[in-house]
Write a structure and sequence with these properties.
13 helices, 11 strands, about 30% helix, five-stranded parallel beta sheet, four-stranded parallel beta sheet, single chain, alpha/beta, about 350 residues
């Protein structure tokens, strides 16, 4: 499941081989004028049979990850409504004052009334077991569901699907090519890191506290686990069977990570909080002050911008190896550094 400013699960990811083709600068300028004539998909990413209109001129996007893809495809002006998180993040690229809906409890009557050509939904909305877009589907609106991606391949396929559904396949392929090319470059650099220099990493979603002492992290078959592996490090929880294991502090301390990465954006002064946690004094990452904060939104939203999170991780863990790597998607390099 996606996590959008809550304690919901992150997404699984695996590597797809890379192929470089286009310049990153073209991603923002590709528009619906760059179309192809390939047939529209007949099933959505969840396997539901769908009939997508030949022309898609109005879109409802109910997930920030999808909204960001649509904007990068040059379709921001065609989004007529979105979820609240999308608007909070991307309002500068959307029409002013478009309707916004709660992705977990959307107002289906209002969505139907918009008369959109397609509604992109997310597996996150069905995480409680109910189809919160059932009435929208019954009204004959084309609903295209994109479930929780299990791999980088899935993310690439999501982008290609959105491109095919909106007649922007060329632009979608350009984005995928940039993503794959960056992953290939990261992998090549990782292959040069000597075994004795490789680090063990604990990735935490939320910092433990007296009220909530559990550490939520990424286990096997998750994209965060794979990103850590791709940059040449080892996830200390990578053998956990659960995708999103809940660790006790004692278990995490026993893993003795050499680096701690946190996506916690809600704990004030989070790096110094982690560095001063009682009982962690002998953990290698604490002794070496190797604690770094990773942008929450970039790492959480499963689209091509996860590459920016990978590069951020790589620069933190292996600055000498990844110092000159270029982020094709333009993430800024600002972050809080460990205390001296």
């Amino acid at each position: 499941m996606r996590k959008y400013h809550s304690r919901n699960s992150f997404r699984a990811v695996t590597e797809e081989s890379a192929e470089a083709t286009s310049e990153a600068s073209t991603l923002q300028t590709e528009s619906t004028e760059n179309t192809d004539v390939s047939a529209k998909p007949t099933t959505d990413r969840s396997g539901n049979e769908v009939t997508i209109p030949e022309e898609v001129n109005s879109i409802v996007s109910m997930a920030p990850s999808t909204t960001q893809i649509l904007i990068d495809l040059g379709l921001g002006d065609k989004i007529v409504a979105c979820d609240t998180y999308s608007y909070a993040s991307y309002s500068d690229s959307l029409k002013a004052d478009i309707p916004q809906f709660d992705m977990m409890t959307p107002d289906q009557e209002q969505i139907i009334a918009l008369g959109a050509d397609v509604v992109f939904t997310t597996g996150m909305s069905a995480s409680h077991g109910d189809d919160v877009f059932a009435a929208v589907k019954e009204a004959g609106v084309c609903v295209l569901d994109i479930p929780s991606s299990a791999s980088l391949q899935d993310i690439s396929d999501d982008i290609r699907f959105i491109g095919a559904a909106t007649s922007t396949s060329d632009a979608a392929e350009a984005i995928v090519s940039e993503m794959e090319s960056a992953i290939e470059e990261i992998s090549k650099i990782a292959a040069t890191i000597p075994e004795e220099e490789k680090k063990t990493v604990l990735f935490e979603l939320f910092t433990p506290s007296a009220d909530s002492p559990t550490i939520y992290t990424c286990g096997s078959n998750t994209y965060i686990n794979e990103m850590i592996s791709l940059i040449g490090a080892t996830n200390v929880a990578g053998e956990e069977e659960s995708q999103w294991p809940a660790l006790t502090e004692e278990a995490a301390v026993a893993m003795d990570p050499q680096v701690i990465l946190t996506a916690d954006m809600y704990t004030d002064d989070v790096i110094n909080v982690i560095l001063s946690m009682s009982g962690w004094e002998n953990v290698s990452a604490i002794k070496d002050k190797a604690v770094y904060q990773i942008d929450n939104d970039t790492v959480n939203r499963p689209n091509h911008h996860v590459v920016s999170a990978m590069i951020e991780m790589a620069r933190d863990i292996y600055p000498d190896y990844y110092e000159t790597i270029v982020d094709p998607f333009g993430a800024e390099d600002s972050k809080e550094q460990p205390a001296a």
